[in-house]
């Protein structure tokens, strides 16, 4: 029998029981099995969960994401411009502004 874990899905905030933890899941300290040793049913949050897609990203990964988007944009889309000095807050601000622009398109 596999070992079950109780996790929170980062995208939705739902709590589910899984046999394999993957990216986008946060393990929570909560029993995964009910008292009859069956996997617990999913639980969904009452309100939508606001998720930061860049949570835990390091500066190198943020810079790589900016570069990848700029390379993919070509001539038909605006380039992402990062304010000086180009550290983590400026990178996050530039990526979030690009996300907002894309959401409006």
**Main structural class:** alpha+beta
Q: Which spans have pLDDT < 50 for at least 5 consecutive residues?
A: none
Number of domains: 2
Summarize the main sheet.
3 strands, antiparallel
Q: Gap between N and C termini, in Å?
A: 48 Å
Helices and strands, in order, run as EEEHH
| Helix content percent band | 25-40%
Radius of gyration: 19 Å
Mean pLDDT: 89
Strand adjacency order, main sheet: 2-1-3
Rough shape?
Answer: elongated
Give the beta-strand count.
Answer: 3
Tally of alpha and pi helices: 2
Which descriptors would you attach to this protein?
2 domains; alpha+beta; 11% strand; 105 residues; elongated; 3-stranded antiparallel β-sheet; 2 helices
Which helices and strands, and how do they pair?
Elements: E1 5-9, E2 15-18, E3 25-27, H1 59-73, H2 88-104
Antiparallel strand pairs: 1-2, 1-3
Helix pairs in contact: 1-2
Structure overview:
It is a single chain. This protein is α+β, with helices and mostly antiparallel strands. The chain has helices spanning 59-73, 88-104, and strands at residues 5-9, 15-18, 25-27. The protein has two domains: 1-48, no CATH class; 59-104, no CATH class. Helix content is 30%, strand content 11%. It has a three-stranded antiparallel beta sheet with strand order 2-1-3, with no helix packed on it. The mean pLDDT is 89.
Give a short overview.
The chain has 105 residues and is an alpha+beta fold.
